[in-house]
Automatic annotation (TrEMBL):
Keyword list, A-Z: DNA-binding, Phosphoprotein, Transcription, Transcription regulation
InterPro entries according to UniProt: CheY-like_superfamily, NreC/VraR/RcsB-like_REC, Sig_transdc_resp-reg_C-effctor, Sig_transdc_resp-reg_receiver, Tscrpt_reg_LuxR_C, WalR-like
Domain Response regulatory: residue ranges: 4-122
Organism: Umezawaea tangerina
GO BP annotation list: phosphorelay signal transduction system; regulation of DNA-templated transcription
GO molecular function, one term: DNA binding
Modified residues (4-aspartylphosphate): 55
Source organism superkingdom: Bacteria
Start and end residues of each HTH luxR-type domain: 152-217
Protein name: LuxR family two component transcriptional regulator
Segments passing through the bilayer: none
Matching Gene3D superfamilies: 3.40.50.2300
């Protein structure tokens, strides 16, 4: 399957570098480019890409709001949005995830890592590089607070004990292999548990699972 890509980046040199790297891949096609958020939203609606590579800081409409519009619930088949952020300056990673981003990478990541990240997102395994995930969670999780109101129904009620543990480990940024080692399970068994957790909680991907875990107090910033 060819992965259709839309590149949203205001710096022409960076955007050209991304496009060159993607076009060199046999399984990728760059269907469009955008230098601002408004153009990105319009292009996503017109071109129906599989993955949108989104910068956070763009003129006109920032990447967070652009992501929110591209991945809004009423879109029948929303593309996966891969946010590329500058770790030391962007303070909006969590906001981007809540807006519907399916994953994120650091802007100084090698192009090869970005290319593999696109494949990962396109395949639905949305929480990229566990090491990066842990760093970002550690930096931004203190911005996430459990919901103040006590729900009438336990949000974790659909999950069996093992599935709750898998959710907790996902929220800590562990990969499937690391979860398997932690729990003493086989890799395929962990994949099945992850799928069940997402299905039972009505979550789109692992990123939403992380947000859910922090919002419901399954894990806290100081865990």
């Amino acid at each position: 399957m060819t992965i259709r890509l839309l590149i949203c980046e205001d710096q022409e040199l960076v955007r050209t570098g991304y496009a060159t790297a993607f076009r060199a891949q046999p399984d990728m096609e760059v269907v469009g480019e955008a230098a601002d958020g408004i153009t990105a939203v319009d292009a996503a609606e017109r071109l129906a890409p599989d993955v949108v590579v989104m910068d956070i800081r763009m003129p006109g409409l920032d990447g967070i709001e652009a992501t929110r519009r591209i991945a809004r619930p009423d879109v029948v088949r929303p593309p996966k949005v891969l946010v590329v952020t500058t770790f030391n300056t962007d303070e909006h990673v969590y906001d981007a995830l809540r807006a519907g981003a399916s994953g994120f990478l650091l802007k100084d990541a090698p192009l090869a890592e970005l290319v593999n990240g696109v494949r990962t997102v396109a395949g639905g395994d949305s929480l990229l590089s566990p090491a990066v995930t842990r760093r970002l969670i550690g930096r931004f999780a203190d911005r996430v607070r459990p919901a103040a109101a006590v729900p009438a129904r336990d949000p974790l009620a659909p999950l069996a004990p093992r599935e709750r543990e898998v959710l907790r480990l996902i929220a800590r940024g562990l990969s499937n292999n690391e979860i398997a080692d932690e729990m003493g399970l086989g890799f395929e068994t962990v994949k099945t548990y992850v799928s069940r957790v997402l299905m039972k909680l009505g979550l789109r991907d692992r990123v939403q699972a992380v947000v859910f875990a922090y919002r419901t107090g399954v894990v806290r910033a100081d865990d």
